[in-house]
Design a protein that fits this description.
Elements (H helix, E strand, L loop, with lengths): L1 H31 L3 E2 L2 E3 L24 H4 L13 H4 L12 H13 L21 H5 L4 H6 L2 H6 L6 E9 L10 E12 L15 E13 L5 E10 L14 H12 L5 E8 L2 E8 L2 E9 L5 E10 L2 E5 L20
Parallel strand pairs: 2-6
Antiparallel strand pairs: 1-2, 3-4, 4-5, 5-6, 7-8, 8-9, 9-10, 10-11
């Protein structure tokens, strides 16, 4: 038996290493491959984490709190200021935007009236202005973004999209070394879609349904062409994960666990102020005052946007999260958006 092992030990070792190498390549490919959906790079949500002792679950809270997760919100759509008829012209040209928020509103104003439902259930014939607004929206991207996402690929990324509504537009945190020409905005979108038509379903009525995404829009001041969209990153929302798993979906639990139990910075939460979908968690620790800004998504999850520390009576934005915990904050440093 010993001689047999010596004979096959080296080939087995080579096969094992080769297998590990192939698996490693597959993992790398999985994390580096690009998938564009609705003109944006699509990323996974926070990976599954173990439940933290003493953390909150939906059953720990008031009975009515379950509605927070199982019913989409009735938040009104943001007034995008622009619509396709406002921007439509024979040359398919677009204005030069001097304000980054106007640029983003115009982009989603165009998408609101665009659709690409061929091959999908939903709608009665042409929806909105069909694919006509897409070239206008595409021209609001930077030249570099258009190179990696050519027009036809951009249009194809909207397959199955019948209607797009912008629900949230909030300035996001930018690292201190960010150039003045770059800004980041948190967005949340509501999409009406439907299942793909198959041989089994082509003659069967199928429901349309709503889907929700949140993420970051990166914009750049290009100078002569004004503000343009440099990149869009989306994370799809899940309506069943948060109420049944883990703790990071709740603003107060996240502050208590990360900044209190893990970091030892926060001793207690003083108060929580709410303004529409924005939640400001005020906390104190070691004589220092903190404010953590969250936004509540349609699926009920609280997403950390900003961390603030009070100095000389003035709130100063900072970055307290360690590199390993950047996943819990929606920012350009979040590894999920790389």
């Amino acid at each position: 038996m010993h001689e047999l092992w010596n004979t096959y030990r080296k080939p087995l070792l080579v096969l094992t290493l080769a297998f590990a190498f192939i698996v490693g390549l597959l993992v790398i490919y999985h994390h580096t491959s690009t998938n564009y959906v609705m003109g944006a790079l699509l990323h996974p949500g926070i990976p599954g984490t173990e439940a933290y002792d003493g953390s909150l679950t939906v059953t720990d809270r008031d009975d009515n709190e379950a509605e927070r997760f199982h019913r989409p919100s009735g938040s009104p759509a943001i007034n995008t200021k622009y619509s396709f008829p406002d921007l439509q012209n024979a040359r398919e040209s677009v204005p030069v935007f001097k304000n980054p928020e106007d640029l983003i509103k115009a982009y989603y104003g165009l998408l609101r009236e665009a659709s690409n439902m061929a091959g999908y259930h939903g709608g009665c014939g042409t929806i909105g202005f069909h694919q006509e607004p897409y070239p206008y929206a595409w021209k609001l991207l930077t030249e570099d973004y258009r190179k990696v996402l050519p027009l036809q690929k951009f249009i194809d990324s909207f397959k199955g999209t019948g209607h797009t509504t912008l629900l949230k537009l909030i300035p996001a945190w930018a690292p201190p070394d960010t150039p003045d020409s770059i800004r980041y905005y948190m967005v949340e979108t509501e999409v009406i879609t439907g299942p793909q038509i198959t041989d089994e379903t082509k003659n069967e009525p199928q429901p349309s349904y709503f889907a929700y995404y949140y993420g970051l829009v990166t914009v750049e001041d290009t100078g002569r062409e004004g503000w343009k969209i440099k990149r869009i990153d989306y994370i799809p929302e899940d309506f069943l994960c948060a109420p049944y798993h883990s703790w990071y979906w709740d603003a107060s639990a996240l502050v208590e666990i990360i900044y209190g139990n893990w970091y030892g910075l926060v001793e207690k939460i003083d108060s929580i102020d709410r303004h529409d979908s924005l939640f400001m968690v005020y906390a104190v620790g070691n004589g220092q005052l903190y404010r953590f800004d969250f936004v509540r998504l349609t699926n009920g999850e609280d997403i950390l946007l900003r961390e603030n520390v009070k100095f000389a009576g003035v709130w100063k934005e900072t970055n307290l999260l360690r590199e390993s915990e950047q996943v819990y904050k929606l920012s350009v440093q979040n590894p999920r958006l790389k």
